[in-house]
Every structure is written in C-alpha cells, then in structure tokens.
Design goal:
Oligomer: single chain
CATH class: Alpha Beta
CATH superfamily: Hypothetical protein apc22750. Chain B
Strand order of the largest sheet: 1-4-5-2-3
Strand content: 25-35%
CATH topology: Translation Initiation Factor IF3
Helix content: 25-40%
CATH architecture: 2-Layer Sandwich
Radius of gyration: 18 Å
Number of helices: 5
Order of helices and strands: HHEEEHEEHH
Largest sheet: 5 strands, mixed
Distance between the termini: 31 Å
Number of strands: 5
C-alpha cells in the first residue's frame, strides 16, 4: 500500500504542484543574475516588458505516508533560502530569470499553515508575481552583451548587488 501512496504522490505532484528548480545547478552567470534580480512594486512612468507569470513554492512534505517527519522542498539552505518564505521567493526569482526577466513586480504571498490541498503540502508558502524586464536589459541579454555601468545607469534596475529593499518579502496572510 505504501508503494501506491508514493507513486500516487509523485503522479499528483507532477500533475499539479509547481515545479522546483535546483538552484545549486545554476551556472555562475545565472547566480550573478539571480543575485541582481529585484522584487519591487510597479511604478508609474517606467516601461516594463512582461515575461509572464511566475510562482515560487516552498512545500512541507512527509518522509513517508503516515510518518509525521517533515522536510521542506526545496531544502532550506543559504542558496535556496534560510526560511520557507525565502525559499519560495528564491524559486519565484529563478523562474523569472529563466523567462528572461530582471525583476518580479508586485508579488503576492500566501502561507498555508495547515494542509495545502492544492499543492499536496502539509504546510506551504507560495509567492506569485510577474516576471518583467526593461527593454534595454532584455535586448542585452538576448544579444549576449554583458551589462556595463553606462548601460545599467540608463536602466531602472539596481546594479549587481540589489539592496535589501529590492528583495523585500511581501506580507503573507495565513490560510
């Protein structure tokens, strides 16, 4: 019976739960871009190029059916995030990066502290936003041109090291 439950969870997860990206497998360049990724509110007067919706999820799972020993996916770490909320934010930022974005605009957050049936998690943190890029940065990435200080200064994006305010985690209501 436990084999069926494991296969059932794997099938359910593949069909419904958002995918997780292994941050440890990102290239040095992707890690640099991830470090520069901003999370911010949309501002009037700035032009953004939408790259699409992005979702980040941190999910508490059980080691086996009927065994109350839990772990977080993705695993909590310096790279993934030290807390489940930070891990969900990292997942959202990585997915935006994979879409060619340099920012996530107006993210929202949901914390399920009881079973999250929609994602098949015992507890979850979900962050939802839109990946965006500005026209100058997006053109440079597509052309393979490294970002230079003179071009970066014309862009509304923060330089190589985003300030803590640029990575501010949104407030999460409990559900």
């Amino acid at each position: 019976m436990s084999g069926c439950a494991v296969v059932g969870d794997a099938a359910y997860s593949a069909a419904f739960r958002t995918t997780f990206v292994d941050v440890a497998k990102l290239s040095a360049e992707e890690l640099r871009q991830l470090d520069a990724m901003q999370v911010r509110e949309a501002r009037d007067g700035l032009v953004y190029v939408s790259r699409g919706k992005v979702t980040g999820l941190a999910c508490s799972l059980s080691v086996a059916p009927l065994v109350p020993v839990f772990f977080w996916t993705p695993p909590l770490s310096e790279v993934n995030g030290r807390t489940p909320k930070e891990a969900a934010m990292t997942q959202m930022r990585v997915k935006a990066l994979k879409l060619g974005a340099n920012a996530v605009l107006s993210p929202s957050c949901v914390h399920h502290d009881i079973v999250d049936w929609g994602n098949n998690c015992f507890e979850s943190w979900g962050l939802y936003g839109r990946g965006h890029g500005d026209p100058i940065y997006s053109t440079m990435i597509k052309a393979g041109i490294p970002e230079t200080a003179s071009v970066a200064s014309t862009s509304p994006r923060v330089g190589a090291h985003a300030s803590p305010a640029a990575r501010r985690l949104p407030r999460c209501p409990r559900r």
